[in-house]
Write a structure and sequence with these properties.
The chain is mostly helical and about 170 residues long. Helix content is about 75%, strand content about 5%. Strands 1-2 form a two-stranded antiparallel ribbon.
Amino acid sequence: AMRSSRELADLSEALNSLAATLRARETEQERRSEEMMRTERLAVVGRMASVVAHEVRNPLNSIALNVDLLREMLEGPGRDPARALDVLRAVQGEVDRLAEITEEYLRFGLMPKGVMAACDLGRVLRETRDFMEGEFAAAGIAVRTELPDVPLRVRTDEGQFRQALIN
């Protein structure tokens, strides 16, 4: 209750009305913002599912080709146990990478964050080339690499770098 002139009472009512309108707008704005964030998150999850399918498909294809190659090595003439062990190590590396990809995506539902560490790019290139050899041969692709004898050391996420090469 106010004891003042009608003019001040009208002004007070107008200010109270304005404050109520601003609160209502702010509430509506927050609701819209939350709804937009929810919609955006669903869109990200959809895109993420597509990326996960793509990222998982590539190592699975390579694993399948290397397993075929390994079977041929073990069944065919001129068995090469050392080369078979290399293929097995490559297959295990891809299985580990699939597990990493899955864990990263499950952790927060976003693209995996890189773990930066010292890495020899030449070694990763050679290992990836060797692992993909069966796939290259099946597609009729010849790969030639010219790498220096000294390590090419950089700070990178080795798993993501390898994934980029395979992609």
